[in-house]
Amino acid sequence: LAADWWKAYGEPGLDTLVERSLAASLDLRLAAARVDETAVALGLARSAQWPSVDLGGNVTRSRSSLLTGQPASPGGPEATSHRLVLNTSFELDLWGRLRDATRAAQEQLLVSEHARDTVRLAVVGGVVQAWFGVRSLDAQLQAVDTQLRLRTESLGLVQRRVAGGLASALDQAQAEAAQAALQ
Fold it and tell me: Which helix (H) or strand (E) holds 73?
């Protein structure tokens, strides 16, 4: 099923209405946000399978008195120390806990994508159904207008035939009743 299947109908107004409905759908926005959320969870689950590396550092500058070794006033000797720390850690996945968590996160991502696609299909389907419902009502109204015009013309003919003595008052009454019933 194509993502834009409704375009096969060739209705520019329908295309515009569907696009507007998709853009305004809060349910679709929520479903898309859930897809993003599960994609992040998948990334976190995958990253847990790799070693982690932490790097930190600091610089310390101090002055001390030459005589006492205590902090001194400005102008005393300065000492600067640099510290760089590198930590690594890795969890061995002997029983497959991390692998299973990644697989579960992948499946959850597929579920949320399916849910988003289902919401999108429901929005589009509702809009298309309403569009063709309105189009059907328009066609019915046009058919009734045409029938009413024809019955009005028929009544005029019957009235001329009655005036000419070619039809009875019963024929005229039946034509008037048919027109009134349709109105």
Answer: none
